[in-house]
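Worked problem 6 (solution included).
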Amino acid sequence: MKQILLVLILTNCLFSYDKNFSYRKYTHVKKFYSSLVKETVDIALKYNMPPAAILAIASVESGYGRGYVASISGNILSLGANKNDIALPSLYLPNTKNPYKVIYNTKEIKSYKKEELFWKQRPKSLKKDYRPKGIAGTTTNLDYFDYNKQAKIKANLQNIKEFCTLWISYNNRFKAFSCARAFLDEQVKKHGKEILFTKKLNKEFINHVGGKKNSFNYRKTWPVKVNKVLEKTGLTELTKDISNNKSFDESW
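Solution. The predicted structure is:
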């Protein structure tokens, strides 16, 4: 009887997500969105931005928040540092080979045997470092956000706000971003803010800012990856539900 009950529980957990949104089965995906989606929707509405696209881009750029640059700096959108910003410096860090993983957390480094780690000097990321003043831009306290979860969320949201205001802007010198700003404002003027939660607009925005020269990412495969995340995680549905005051768990 206990075995049958266990099977039923495991089956229920396995199929508790919409089958059309197959990425929802991964715990790290759920964890990443659950801490950010409500505030991301609020920021996006304020600045006429599509929240699902923002989250999809952040997912690809940061590996759902697990990439070492994003983990250290809080920069989940991989935004470059402007002239007045502090950038993440070159770092001498170890990695494991199989599976490959860059390790920056001091306690985790100590948990490995010396021969299991391969150290490498990594180049400057040129990405803005959102750690607090005093440690931002340094090679110390790389694991700060691992132990300061609220500070990490705050940094992630500041990163999202700057994407919405400084990058997607009429003042941006790159055409892909200034045109994206004009496109979004025109759509909202015509259709209202509800248009920001449609799959069509989110995909169009992603295609506006990527896959071309002097854009967020010049590679043709980049918009394809981001749009796949948008589809497989059901981000337009999730963000629309959140905007209608559904809880994360209820929507997920």
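Discussion: The beta strands are 91-97, 100-102, 118-122.
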